[in-house]
User: Which sequence fits this backbone?
């Protein structure tokens, strides 16, 4: 999977950070130290880490990912990263 989305709430820049959904690469989620959770009332799972986005972005860069775009959506910050698969 060459694309990854991570996000956090604006008031929570120190974490937690959402790093994937139930279909994310489990090896990458393990590398990030993410835990899979399902919020009450949701019919889908997400991977979260306690670290702030900056540390997760550093880890993803070390794994070969680069930021493609970043935006703010309401009270949420979202980064899209890509890894070349050559």
Assistant:
């Amino acid at each position: 999977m060459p694309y990854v989305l991570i996000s956090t709430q604006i008031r929570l820049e120190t974490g937690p950070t959402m790093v994937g959904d139930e279909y994310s690469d489990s090896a990458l989620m393990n590398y990030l130290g993410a835990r899979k959770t399902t919020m009450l009332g949701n019919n889908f799972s997400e991977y979260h880490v306690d670290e702030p986005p900056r540390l997760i972005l550093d880890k993803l860069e070390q794994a070969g990912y680069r930021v493609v775009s970043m935006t703010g959506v309401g009270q949420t910050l979202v980064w899209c990263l890509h890894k070349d698969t050559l």
